[in-house]
């Protein structure tokens, strides 16, 4: 059967959809891309938290899944809300790229820990808050738009550097512009960063086809990690706009370690915990992490964050 793949039309989104297309092709499945604009692509003059907390980059693709205009939707796992409506499901997560953030600049001498002050372009509440916490000497410049737009703004002098996900920078072939790889322990990524997710609507795709796609694309170790991270985010009822962070990693064959937490928007308060457990209990791991963070003052912090966004 021929598969219609729904994707946003940014270069990164199309790269990711073509990557999925290649994996399907290797299993003998043909496909085509259907480009769909989302609110997050069209509204560029407001921060994501102001546009709406959930589904900014996914809603229009989900609408097309439901009408049957597309068979699968390809998203950055990071952009997919942690709680999906009951008729929508994730059937695969690709093997994760290194999940860390990177500093991108034309100036090779810049470093976050270098002590000198410069301007970093980012629109992510997590990155702004972590920068305020760990690097208070730096300033941030609000910057929306796709990777190419941000690089153009960098070149036009709106900022001195960008803070971006390694995965996107690498997929776009901009590795040469990376001047620093940020440590996962301090700059813990957003839930799902570095993996690509396949979403389907229940009645429109046959079980056989769905299973075939899962077999070709899903990376089980990554999926176990993302289940833990997404359970954490679901318990916080957070979208991509709250300054939360979490990363699950395999410690050995049997165990997953999940570190994550919350940081206040001004960076003054940072809550972080690590939980370890078996992959079959990854959901519980995420839930436990969230409960621990909420109990340590995260509940009040979340209220505060929501009131300010
Ligand atoms: N919200 C934007 C977004 N969504 C996914 C990625 C990068 C690719 C990935 O994490 O898989 C990016 C860009 C960025 O954060 O730098």
TrEMBL record:
Residues that bear S-(dipyrrolylmethanemethyl)cysteine: 240
Gene transcribed to yield this protein: hemC
Sequence similarity: Belongs to the HMBS family.
Alphabetical GO biological process terms: protoporphyrinogen IX biosynthetic process
Cofactor note: Binds 1 dipyrromethane group covalently.
EC number, UniProt record: 2.5.1.61
GO MF term set: hydroxymethylbilane synthase activity
Domain of life: Bacteria
Cofactor(s) essential for the protein: dipyrromethane
Protein name: Porphobilinogen deaminase
The keyword RNA-binding is assigned to this record: no
Extra remark beyond the main annotation: The porphobilinogen subunits are added to the dipyrromethane group.
UniProt keyword list: Porphyrin biosynthesis, Transferase
Domain Porphobilinogen deaminase N-terminal: 3-201
Enzyme class name: transferase
Domain Porphobilinogen deaminase C-terminal: 224-294
General function of this protein: Tetrapolymerization of the monopyrrole PBG into the hydroxymethylbilane pre-uroporphyrinogen in several discrete steps.
UniProt subunit comment: Monomer.
């Amino acid at each position: 059967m021929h598969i219609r793949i729904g994707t946003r039309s940014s270069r990164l989104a199309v790269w990711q959809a073509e990557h999925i297309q290649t994996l399907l092709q290797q299993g003998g499945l043909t496909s085509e891309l259907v480009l769909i604009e989302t609110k997050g692509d069209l509204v560029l003059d407001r921060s994501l938290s102001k546009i709406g907390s959930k589904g900014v980059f996914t809603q229009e693709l989900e609408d097309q899944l439901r009408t049957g205009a597309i068979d699968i939707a390809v998203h950055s796992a990071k952009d997919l809300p942690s709680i999906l409506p009951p008729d929508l499901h994730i059937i695969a997560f690709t093997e994760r790229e290194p999940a860390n953030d990177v500093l991108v600049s034309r100036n090779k001498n810049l470093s976050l820990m270098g002590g000198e002050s410069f301007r970093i372009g980012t629109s992510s509440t997590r990155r702004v808050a972590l920068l305020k916490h760990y690097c208070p000497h730096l300033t941030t410049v609000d910057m929306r738009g796709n990777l190419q737009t941000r690089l153009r703004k960098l070149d036009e002098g709106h900022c001195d550097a960008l803070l971006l996900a390694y995965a996107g920078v690498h997929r776009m072939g901009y590795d040469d512009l990376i001047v620093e790889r940020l440590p996962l322990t301090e700059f813990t990524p957003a839930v799902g960063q570095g993996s690509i997710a396949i979403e389907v609507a229940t009645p429109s795709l046959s079980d056989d086809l769905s299973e075939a796609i899962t077999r070709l694309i899903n990376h089980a170790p990554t999926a176990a990690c993302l289940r833990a991270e997404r359970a954490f985010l679901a318990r916080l009822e957070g979208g991509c706009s709250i300054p939360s962070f979490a990363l699950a990693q395999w410690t050995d064959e049997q165990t997953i370690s999940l570190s994550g937490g919350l940081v206040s928007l001004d960076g003054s308060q940072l809550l972080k915990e690590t939980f370890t457990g078996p992959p079959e209990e990854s959901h519980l791991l995420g839930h436990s992490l969230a409960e621990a963070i909420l109990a340590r003052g995260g509940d009040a912090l979340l209220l505060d964050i929501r009131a300010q966004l």
